[in-house]
Write a structure and sequence with these properties.
The structure holds 2 protein chains of 2 kinds. By secondary structure, chain A is mostly helical. Chain A is 68% helix and 6% strand. Chain A contains 15 helices and 6 strands. Chain A has a two-stranded antiparallel sheet with strand order 1-2. The longest helix of chain A has 40 residues, at 3-42. By secondary structure, chain B is mostly helical. Chain B has a domain at 5-222. Helices cover 74% and strands 1% of the residues of chain B. Chain B is built from 11 helices and 2 strands. A two-stranded antiparallel sheet of chain B has the order 1-2. In chain B, helix 1 runs antiparallel to helix 2, helix 1 (5-37) runs antiparallel to helix 3 and helix 9 packs antiparallel against helix 10. The longest helix of chain B is centred in the first third of the chain and has 33 residues, at 5-37. Classes of the chains: A mainly alpha, B mainly alpha. Chains A and B meet through helix 2, helix 3, strand 2 and helix 15 of A and helix 3, helix 4, helix 5 and helix 11 of B.
């Protein structure tokens, strides 16, 4: 592998890893804040116990998100210095604002929340968790403003080989971010909802082997997760649908790759299963539902969806001045192409994301039905599925980003800079291997520790130390100082 | 008004690094002292909890400084981060294990588990405490930068005697800073152990800081043309260290903490004022140096960032300051320990 491929792999590994933790932070922070609010409003101490139980799991996850986030900010300069020079005038601002407006808010008030039990007045203490949750979700907006510039650059002008900002308002109201932000944040809420529902289901499955109090609190948790999850999944799907339509206008190549459309189609069918040949650029097996893609894209049963090959030919002509034969030779290509790498990955990522999303929506509907019938606690099969369904949002989150970022390439900034031009010229294969292996090792070890802790605390009851509760191995029993809770 | 926005942002980046070194400085110091002043598990928990509510927000000063550097001086950010590639990887390694350690350490009742995370806190504090000093010493000393603003040297070029002394300066200042912080936040045996450390730590900080300044005269061009800010920050640093020592030996540790804190501010001010108008001087050819003028963003971006910073930096200082007020009490083994 050459330096470019290693740098891309490193960005992929560290970003996907970082985004295992971020969505749960976004969603669970709000759910914990809701439970805390319920406690303050009703005075029911079960809500206090729930807040502390889910809050503990939130903090274990949060720590991982924080430390892996530092790598992200440093990585642009470390591996992608030429990219950083090109976009710094635009890209740096949202990152700096993210830190000033969101990270400070999140970290300061979370510290106050963790250590504020019994020290802050009740309502002030409640405000700290809401401010921390606000900070977390605000940070998503600013980082997506930066990301949206890569997908759909706006409010800029290229001067002397550098992109310079001309319109800050255009940058932060990029149509791309206005759709991407709700999709990502609501996806995070779904992640939090399924996490809470899944762990609650695990406990509800234990039936009478636990205290009535535990059962009651996990039932409540499940219901909160279900209501929150319903709103979030519906919102995520609507935002995602709008993103797809937007993609047809702004990033047709990504849409073509995501749908496996090789040639222009009018009306375009929706591919349900495709095996393609990326070297000869065509589908070998393709099962389609006629006209459905046109309908989804344009709200009418006809309308042309551009294909990969015709878009590639168009871009080759449009960017011929900038990316000529000399450029191709310099980077070891036979000709300059504009086709995303690994179409199969983009295609199947899209299907995995949508599939996981629809599956989650159906699971919530089934849960609502059982709850309406009052039989939720007796539905062992459903509850078991909900435990496994904790993984579904992670599938959707990861594949969503794979689709977004693979489908963007070979551009790093659409229409302005290709990935080949973006890497640090002075960082060699050796240095990249050291950091790639180093990050992978440390991330692997930390993942094991993180999952172990989540399991340890997640599988312990909310209401510990009761006679009926089955002691869980490895869980510290309340000692002489029960206040030591974290 | 005679000052360009890029010059203002050079000062603001300096302010952000002052915030980072001042606040994370004592966090790192506390982390380094952890194995030496906490003899039992409970004592180590007290030490960790003394910075428990604030360490994460303190670290955001680094993220803000990095982000602001990217926004205001993209070339500085790009040259520095790609140039310090492996050094930054080591720093990141330290920051990763350290941050997770605070949260994970006390969540399992196992001696090996806790000891492992204690080492992570120690190493994760020691590494950045040294390497940020090494990095800044290299910057003021000058690095091999070519006409494309790219660092052409190797990792080992960065480990020269001068920069290593720079690393020891930040290390000693942070250890003293952390010891004085713990002196104010703990009681009993921990406090006595910390007090015993403050005096040797102060001697080390004075010797190393003075040595570093003398080394700078010999080995660098820092003082070839002296500006007033340099003089003030140099005298201020020395004065602040003497003030710290004076109070230290009279057991007025709060004042000593302020003195040492001012010394940290002084060192950052000295480094930044010595750099100006360069941000990364080149040793290959002076003409290749990155300056506040050729490395900066456009006026437009800088003016937006100025508005944002002028609004948010005071706001952040206000609510962070309030946090220190809320948690002003000493932490003891009888305290409610979260970490």
């Amino acid at each position: 592998m050459d330096a470019l491929e290693l740098a891309r792999l490193q960005f992929g590994v560290t970003t996907v890893y970082h985004f295992f933790f971020v969505p749960l932070t976004l969603g669970l922070s709000i759910i914990v804040a809701i439970m805390h609010t319920q406690w303050v409003r009703t005075g029911d101490e079960r809500y206090e116990k729930m807040t502390k139980f889910w809050g503990k799991l939130f903090l274990i996850n949060f720590a991982m998100g924080v430390v892996t986030g530092i790598v992200q900010e440093f990585q642009f300069g470390m591996n992608w210095s030429e990219y950083s020079r090109f976009v710094g005038d635009i890209f740096g601002a949202p990152l700096a604002i993210e830190a000033l407006m969101a990270f400070f808010l999140e970290s300061t008030f979370l510290g106050l929340w963790i250590f504020g039990w019994g020290r802050l007045p009740q309502k002030v203490h409640l405000a700290t968790i809401w401010l921390a949750a606000l900070g977390a979700n605000l940070s998503a907006y600013w980082i997506l403003v930066a990301n949206s510039f890569m997908q759909n650059p706006v409010g800029y002008e290229v001067v002397d080989g550098r992109a310079t900002m001309t319109d800050f308002i255009a940058l932060i109201t990029n149509p791309n971010v206005l759709l991407q932000f709700p999709h990502v944040v609501l996806g995070g809420f779904v992640t939090g909802a399924f996490f809470v529902m899944g762990i609650s289901a695990f406990h509800l499955l234990r039936g009478n082997r636990q205290t009535e109090e535990n059962k009651l609190m996990f039932r409540r948790s499940f219901n909160i997760g279900m209501a929150f999850g319903l709103v979030a999944i519906v919102g995520t799907m609507f935002a995602g649908h709008a993103q797809g339509q937007h993609m047809a206008d702004y990033q047709p190549m990504k849409l073509a790759a995501a749908e496996g459309i090789w040639e222009d189609e009018d009306p375009a069918g929706l591919s349900m299963f495709q095996i393609g040949d990326e070297s000869s650029r065509q589908a070998i097996i393709n099962i389609q539902i006629p006209s459905l893609l046109s309908l989804l894209t344009y709200d009418t049963p006809d309308g042309m969806v551009r294909g990969i090959n015709s878009l590639n030919a168009e871009y080759q002509e449009r960017f011929a001045d900038r990316y000529d034969e000399a450029f191709a030779e310099q980077h070891g290509m036979t000709e300059v192409n504009y086709i995303p790498p690994a179409i199969w990955l983009t295609y199947w990522s899209f299907r995995a994301m949508v599939g996981a999303g629809v599956f989650m929506f159906v699971l919530i509907l089934i849960g609502l039905f059982f709850r309406w019938r009052g039989t939720l606690l007796n539905r062992a099969l459903y509850l078991r599925m909900m435990v496994l369904a904790i993984l579904l949002p992670y599938v959707a989150n990861t594949t969503g980003w794979l689709l977004t970022e693979f489908g963007r390439q070979p551009w790093i900034v659409f229409g302005e800079m290709r990935i080949e031009e973006a890497v640090s010229p002075n960082v060699g294969v050796g240095a990249l291997l050291i950091t790639l292996i180093g990050f992978t090792l440390i991330y692997g070890v930390l993942m094991a520790a993180d999952i172990w802790l989540l399991w340890k605390y997640g599988s312990a009851g909310i209401d510990k130390g009761d006679g009926d509760a089955v002691p869980v191995e490895g869980v510290p029993q309340p000692d002489a100082q029960p206040a030591v809770s974290y | 008004m005679g000052i360009e926005l890029s010059e203002l942002w050079f000062v603001l980046i300096g302010v952000l690094f002052v915030g980072f070194f001042f606040l994370e400085g004592f966090d790192y110091g506390v982390g380094i002292l952890l194995p030496f002043v906490g003899k039992t598990d409970k004592e180590r928990r007290v030490v960790i909890n003394s910075i428990g509510p604030v360490w994460d927000a303190n670290e955001v000063w680094l993220l803000t400084a990095g982000g602001a550097m990217f926004a205001a001086f993209p070339h500085w950010y790009a040259t520095m981060f790609s140039g310090f590639y492996l050094a930054l990887f080591v720093i990141l390694f330290g920051l990763i294990i350290r941050g997770v350690a605070f949260e994970f350490r006390s969540k399992a009742d196992d001696v090996r588990w806790r000891r492992t995370w204690d080492y992570a806190i120690f190493l994760g504090s020691l590494i950045p405490a040294i390497l940020f000093g090494v990095a800044f010493a290299n910057i003021v000393r000058g690095m091999a930068i070519d006409e494309t603003m790219t660092y052409t040297g190797t990792f080992f070029d960065l480990l020269n005697p001068y920069s290593l002394v720079g690393g020891l300066v930040t290390l000693s200042l942070f250890i003293l800073h952390g010891a004085l912080f713990l002196e104010m936040k703990t009681e009993g045996e921990i406090r006595e152990r910390v007090q015993a450390i403050t005096r040797p730590a102060w001697f080390a900080a004075v010797v190393l800081t003075v040595g570093f300044v003398l080394f700078s005269f010999v080995d660098t061009t820092m003082f070839d043309s002296v500006n007033p800010v340099q003089v003030v920050s140099l005298l201020g640093t020395v004065g602040a260290l003497l003030f710290a020592g004076f109070n230290l030996f009279r057991a007025r540790f709060g004042l000593a903490f302020i003195g040492n804190g001012l010394a940290i501010v002084g060192v950052v001010a000295l480094l930044f004022s010595s750099l100006f108008p360069n941000v990364m001087p080149s040793t290959t050819d002076v003409a290749y140096s990155l300056t506040v003028y050729n490395a900066s963003s456009t006026e437009y971006t800088l003016s937006i960032m100025t508005v944002v910073a002028l609004f948010f930096v005071p706001l952040v200082l206000m609510y962070q300051g309030w946090t220190y007020w809320v948690f002003r009490k000493r932490v003891t083994t009888d305290s409610h320990l979260e970490y």
